[in-house]
Design a protein that fits this description.
The complex is a heterotrimer of chains A (about 290), B (about 240) and C (about 325). With about 290 residues, chain A is mainly α. Chain A has helices spanning about 1-30, 40-55, 60-90, 95-120, 145-165, 165-175, 180-185, 190-215, 220-235, 240-260, 265-280; strands spanning about 135, 140. Chain A has a domain at about 20-220. The relative contact order of chain A is 0.21. In chain B, β4 and β5 (about 65) form a beta hairpin. Chain B starts with a strand and ends with a helix. Chain B is α/β, with parallel strands linked by helices and about 240 residues long. Chain B is built from nine helices and ten strands. The longest helix of chain B has 16 residues, at about 170-185. Chain B has a six-stranded mixed β-sheet, sandwiched between helices. Chain B has a four-stranded antiparallel β-sheet with strand order 2-1-4-5, covered by helices on one side. Chain B has two domains: about 1-90 and about 135-235, P-loop containing nucleotide triphosphate hydrolases (Rossmann fold), CATH 3.40.50; about 90-135, no CATH class. The mean pLDDT of chain B is about 90. Chain C is built from 14 helices and two strands; from the N terminus they run αααααβααααβααααα. Classes of the chains: A mainly alpha (about 290), B alpha/beta (about 240), C mainly alpha (about 325). Chains A and C meet through α3, α4, α9 and α11 of A and α4, α5, α8, α11 and α13 of C.
Amino acid sequence: MASILQALFDGIASGAIYGIIALGLSLQFGVMKIINFAHGSFLMIAMYLSYVAANSLGLHLLAAIPVVVAVLYVVGLAAQRWLIEPVYMKESTREPISVLIFTTGLWIFLDNLFLVIAGPDYRTPDSDWATGIFIVGDVILTYPQVAGLIIAVLVTVALVAFMRFTRLGRAIRATGQDREAANVLGIDSASVYRTSFAIGLAVLGVSGPLLLASYPVDPFIGDLFGLRAFIVVVLGGIGSIGGALAGGLLVGLIESLGAQFLPITYSQALIFGVFLAVLYFRPQGLFGMERA
Amino acid sequence: MSLLEFRSIARHFGGLKAIDAVSFNVQEGETVGLIGPNGAGKTTLFAMASGFLPPTDGQIWFAGSRIDGKSAPEICRQGLVRTFQIVRPFGEMSVLDNVMVGCFLHHRDRQAARNAAMAVLERFDMADRADQAAKTLTLAKRKRLEVAKVIATKPKLLMLDEVMAGLTRVEMEEIINLIRSLRDDGVTVLLVEHNMHAVMELSDRVVVIHHGRKICDAEPQVAANDPAVVEAYLGGDED
Amino acid sequence: MTMARSYWLPIGAGIAMMLLPLLLTNPYALSVVVLALLYSYLSLSWNLIGGIGGQLSLGHAAYFGIGAYTSTVLFTELGISPWFGMIAGAGLASVAAVVIGMPCFRLRGAYYALATLAAAMILMVLVENTNDFLGGPRGLDVRLLHDAPLSFQHTDKRFYYYIILAFVVCALLINAWALRSRFGYYLTAIRNDHEAAAALGVDAQRFKLIAAVASAAMTAVGGTFYAQYVLFIAPEKVFGSHLSVQIAVICIVGGRGTLWGPVLGAFLLLPAEDLARTLTGGTPGVTMMLYGLLLMVVMRFEPRGIIVLMERALAEWNRWKGKTARMGKGVA
């Protein structure tokens, strides 16, 4: 019974992080209707940045969050302006697969670039904080897990508030719903796209230091988390911010509880199995506002 | 003979009743104009009839069989086709190839489809542009192509969605003549149109939709003088 | 939609390819060409669903692996000739293609891409964890029979050369037919605008599935060929993402949706990959970086692939030829 409780908590804690990772993706897709397959690679970059911040700059992992967020925001602006936008504009059919292929290329390139630069070794940060724990009854809660939960809720609330109450947020939502109408109202959609993409990566950046506290970083760490993010987005429903968090929690729980009953090597396959199952039975997800 | 019949058709979006118990029919050989202020629900009716949107309630019958809820390709195969308000050519394909896609419905062989497509293009006065990429056409030509594509499928009933929008006076007259000649060939036409001149010129009958309900179903001159219709246009949305 | 009007180039190339083994006595050189032909074949197979069909499959290794393992297991356990095992593999791969494609083809392209990725990974994990029959992570050896053409084996490499050449010719013919036929037109229309296509009576789901099944079956056949050529298969190699990426990138960079693009891609990229590997002394990740970079460059500057650049160059040359010819003849 104790181990089930632990598994439950672990699932919620990791699910919260998955939610943050998926948030950025959901936002980007909700606004621009493009899917960035390099999302996981940017997470990997965020984690390497966090590693450098912790080990070379001596920052506390939590203090690294604003740094990584800022860097990823700038990276996002640049990536949208110089990489994705030109490809998106060239596409003349109604089914923009070019961006999909392009971001696949970016994903492969970034992952392997870091393999060449940083080597295949796993790296863990110098952080005493990362190993700290609370004990509540029979359940062990690590500092990063608790921090992750709190931050996930904060970020979600902040993002929802931003989208609903600020001018920029409303402009983003308007562009996402009807780009041409938004244009007529004087909203520059290109600039909105750049900002949305940047915000999406910035939110992703929040999860970098948090993940690094629990997982060592290697060039391919982004793959599994990135793929999990896509599954979360499908589960939670595209474009729904609350759905991303809920979907994340669900995936975290399935994984964690599943590991109680299945051997570990199957757990990766389990996630994909869940993904395929969701596609079969409920492609619009739990809170989806539109069909996938 | 009733070719297309809407029987108490309804479409709700959450609490919004986009279409509320609308019934009318289109007889074979007729040209019926479907008019009404903006947002009245006309394109929704088209979407339901052509299989792009399922009705919330009611039935749609075409050529003696029920079609509501069927898929778009199936309905097209039965002879009911529609054009899109915002034209959708296959941009990367040539004008000829665009029409060939329509021709392949009845001609499996490539050469046969090609010949049929050339014939359609001749008919539509676009044969000289056969090899041009569709995405490079002007709006007026795209609208022609849009109609050419669906005519290639040899339909019994053609639903035209605001085909006049965005055209100059001259271009409009050309399209009106085109539609007249299609009608003379025996195609039944249901057209959604804002342009009153076109509607009056072409329609044998008009059906007026306002706030998702049918408020009039009569000859154009009669409808134009119907007080409910006048009120709808003057009182509510207007173009 | 147009095919090369002059047939002499392909026919000349075909004859040259048939005579090649007589000229290439170096067995290493021959094996290089066999590999290039194999990847041409795999790329041409991918082209049906990825190029003409416009669906991004990032897990084609799944079908390759199914082909390799099915024929090998049937041969090892039941003594069935890999020629028949090849057909069984193609059948299984077709089923897999339907299972993956059916839920995904109704949805956006990204879901199909992810599902194909997922499928290949699931299969790899399953095989790696199954030691009975499937050999687990160590892989399976194909029983050595030396010279047994009826069991798809020979010591003379030219046996394999002619077989893969025949496969490539078949794949070219299938692609050529697809491009000219109603099937090809419909898929192109679907690629451009699937709703507008539906309005003309085109059932997108059906045609995408047909393309996916054909592509999967063909790829599985390639898997059997590989198993019989190398006589050893391992999950990482035949189900791995490296192979999936190679196949997709070769077709896209070469020219997806065209007839010769995939072949051009294979003959350009495989030597390039080799060169990159040699230049960097085999540093891991370099070749994949190259593939990723090429993908980005092509999609940014010429999404239709390198073949389009070559066609343009050829057209320029013809025009220049025509101009000088006219000049030579005096006033035209």
